[in-house]
Amino acid sequence: MSAPNKSYDPVEVEALKPEVVEQARDEAIAAFAAAGTLDELKQAKVAHTGDRSPLSLANREIGALPPHAKAAAGKLIGQARGAVNQALAKRQAELEAERDARVLVEEAVDVTLPFDRAPRGARHPLTTMAERIEDTFVAMGYQVAEGPEVEAEWLNFDALNLGPDHPARSMQDTFFVQAPDGSADSGVVLRTQTSPVQARTMLDREPPIYVICPGRVYRTDELDATHTPVFRQVEGLAVDEGITFADLKGTIEVLVEKLIGDHLELRWRPSYFPFTEPSAEVDLQCFVCLGASVGNPDRPCRTCSSEGWIELGGCGVVNPRVLVACGVDPNRYSGFAFGLGLERILMNRHNVADMRDMVEGDVRFTLPFGMEI
Amino acid sequence: MRVPLSWLREYVDLPAGATGRDVAERLVRAGLEVETVEQIGADLKGPLVVGEVLSIEELTGFKKPIRHCFVNVGAANGTGEPQEIVCGATNFAVGDKVVVVLPGAVLPGPFPIAARQTYGHTSAGMICSARELGMGDEHNGIIVLPPEYEPGTDAVELLQLVDEVLDIAVTPDRGYCLSMRGVAREAAAAYGLPLADPALLDVPPANSFGYLVKVNDPAGCDRFVARTVVGVDPNAKSPLWLQRRLQKSGIRPISLTVDITNYVMLEVGQPLHAYDKQRVNGPITVRRAEQGETLTTLDGVERKLAAEDLLICDNSGPIGLAGVMGGASTEILDPAAGPGTTEVIIEAAHFDPVAIARTAKRHKLPSEASKRFERGVDPEAARAAAQRAVDLLVLIAGGTDEAGVTDIAAPHPVRTITIAADLPDRVAGTAYGRETVTRRLQEVGCSVAGADVLEVTPPTWRPDLTDPYDLAEEVIRLEGYDNVPARMPNVPPGKGLTEGQRINRRIGVALAAAGYVEVNNYPFLGETAWDALGLEADDRRRRTVKLVNPLNDEEPALRTTLLPGLLGALRRNIGRGNTDLAIYETGTVFLPKDELSVAPRPAVDHRPSAEELAELDAALPDQPRRIAVALAGERLPSGWWGKGSEASWADAVEAARTVARAAGVELTVRQGQLAPWHPGRCAELVVAGTDRVVGHAGELHPRVVKALGLPARSAAMEIDVDLLTADGAERVSGPTVSGFPVATQDVALIVDTAVPAADVEAALRAGAGELLEALRLFDVFTGEQVGEGKKSLAYALRFRAVDRTLTADEATAAREAAVAEAVARTGAVLRGA
Predict the structure, then answer these.
(1) Which region among A15-19, B107-111, B265-269 has the lowest average model confidence (pLDDT)?
(2) Contacts of A123 in chain B (CB under 8 A)
(3) Can you tell me the distance from the alpha carbon of A189 to that of A169, in angstroms, rounded to the nearest whole number?
């Protein structure tokens, strides 16, 4: 670097001549623009902004200028370098964006490749169906009650107004448990219904009682497309002051609406169960033929056997004798009870044609039902 | 009960246009379970006419007898010329009247009839059998009609071939609907029409010169009516109308006398029995059986009688099981097999429903009669029923009714029920009003007196009406369930699911989310299941609850573990080509108590005592809830991403941890040994901090795998959920999350192969103290470098303090303390030290 020189004329310094500076600036900008890759840009950057670049070299000359000339020269160089750096940054950004875009394209994969590395599981639709019904009633304020599957005959029959010689006892084909002496007189059976849970509940707590009792029950039917010796029921029981048949109707209607919808007609027909009086069977309009198959041999309906109705379950006003046997005062309280077969509801709600599919445990049957139903 | 519509119309003047379905719908809404409405002869098309056989030529040279006939069908064929028909039946002769179907007709099937060449002749039509006409299942040749019918007469009308039959499943409380009379009464009420009661007959009063009957057991038999008819033509046949009504009702015509007793039973609901009077030896006695007595019933079976059986006897001993089945020795005789019966005793009695039910059950003899007696028969119908049978025997069989009328009746108290007139309103939740209540009760046959409180006397045919609620039900059903309003009860706020119920749901969700599929298996099994699992002879799980009447004699017991059913499902799936499996089941097992007892049968007219209730429960087996999983094939599938992993013992143990985590319980895993698991690959599952073993998990024993036909290395787990959750879920205490930096240090420890990793980990945790945030075993290594009988366990330890940044020295000191504890407890050697 030259020593300060008071008589020095800045115009005399070649490198600081405005046209030289401008040319260096323009060459730098052109070089950046011409760089096609980030590597080329890097080289251009070294050449045009590095220590040995024309503008850097020119900048060094400023120090040797007389004070009055420094400002003008500084401004000249500063503006030029500003323009160069701006052009560099701009080109840098452009080339980086190009590179990024190219990399993302190169990294593309076939997202349709099947990826089933985590094994899929599922809950049985009868389980989740029971839960759905439970939840409907729990939301109304009911509680879920459970009881043993191997049950005392007294609770399964006698307490429910089914004495030893009651004809209805032969309606239900019962599995009897061997007594200690090997005879049939154990007083113990596989429960034929979840009603003993209702009896247990009444023996257990004071009214008001609002419970729903899901569970497995047993009857001596051979397994076929529409029967299974082990099946699931959900029963409900309400015992309170002033409970009537009208309350039962309202409750069943809500259940059907939640479970199936409100677009199908219900039919209430009188029936007979020893534990209720009056007793009713509730039929749901056939969701397949909507009754059009009735008396119409050209359009038979497999779902309802051309009856137009599908049996939903039995229900009624609790027989006061049952209340008495379970220690509930029939003069103060009344109740209603209902029972539904889950297999049949599942068959109807989800078009399951063969009950065997529900009991054989084939994972192909259960998987599509997932975690909830 | 099968109810031909044409017959029903005899008692109720139903609207002419009402179809079987219309009537069925009305009856269903009144509470009769009409299962089907059968359209008899719906696809039948004439001409079907009476024919007279003019000539028969036996054709020979064929495999079976063939007849070439000419039959006079009057003008029915349009020409009046004899009809040429080839026939394969041989039970008719020249001059017989037969049923002829002519070309152009269609028989049920549908089976169109046309003239055709057969056996070298033209057959222009067919001579028909009962089966071909859809009349019944009999197949003993063609129908030979009584001689009085003119050739050419329409046989469709004559044989009542077109009808509708309602098949009604009668519930036990509606015994009276096992009769035309009862169903007609319901139909009359449903349509609001009057009933022509077939039991309203003129009956001569009882007298002293009827057949001698002694009832020694009035509790078992409170009514016995006996009538006698003599001079019966043993060759008289049941007229067509009677045969047809029986056939449509599902009863096979047998002989005139028997047909009449069956007909009257169907009509009035009173079972009758007819004895050959000349074969009855002396007076009839009704009594209970004595030990050792036997009786050969009508079906030819010799039956050993029990002391409770109610009998009809004569001087020779038992001649009938009362109300169930008659005896062979006094049976009406068929004239085809010798001299037929000419003198008949008709019995119309009323027996105790319970006695009949027990006898029918004991002898496995559910008969048409017992079915009715069990459900209750109208005791006041006995006289009318006997009269009706006598009338028919006189009318059709040419008999003479004798003047003696036996009628033994035990006094019947009049049953009166007191009912508040508004009880039906209160039960239904609607307002019927007293007038409606009274009218409806009268419709079912009750007599009603009173105002706010009604005194109601039910009819004799309704033994099921015993209390006010029975009466309320009658009113409500006749008014129609559809007309009861729907309302919601005012349910008090509930408590939601119990903690146990929530846990059960969570466990299922957790396993399903971990890739397990739920299955439900029957709990039935037999000894072979235990043998396959390799259980020792004295294994407690072989002690089972057994059924008296299993579906399958090979599987008389209830499960004491979920594994047999679950492994069966595993194999079933594999057999169907589902090879990579993870399944689970949850349900109860049945464990007999140490002390077995018999459940009492307390009275039902009050709440049982606490002792009685305790005895009930004491007689039941323990029924804990279990959960089990089974695995085979790949647990994690291989794929384009690389290799997966085979299901192993470790997955089974992990499943147990998944279950425990869902239940909010911490599990400790120990080395265990239990069939059916591999003795070296069986984990015993213990609730942490206790000694309570709640289950086992691991790989199945190779012998078990072989015995059950499962893939090698199949694994399983079973946990007792009740035991697992006995202490309830622990409430999680929120951790203090430190924001200071973590210090990670690794250690590798060499221990004897037999030292459980769980012990090493416990020692490291104890030694490291509270600065240890987490610890993870990241490698297990065996090989030359660590020496024979040794293994190297490599752990990553994460240290962190809640209040400061740990220095390297602090972290190292904590690590060294951890290692020192492991060395002390397990003999570990720090690798590389």
Answers:
(1) A15-19
(2) 508-509, 512, 518
(3) 12
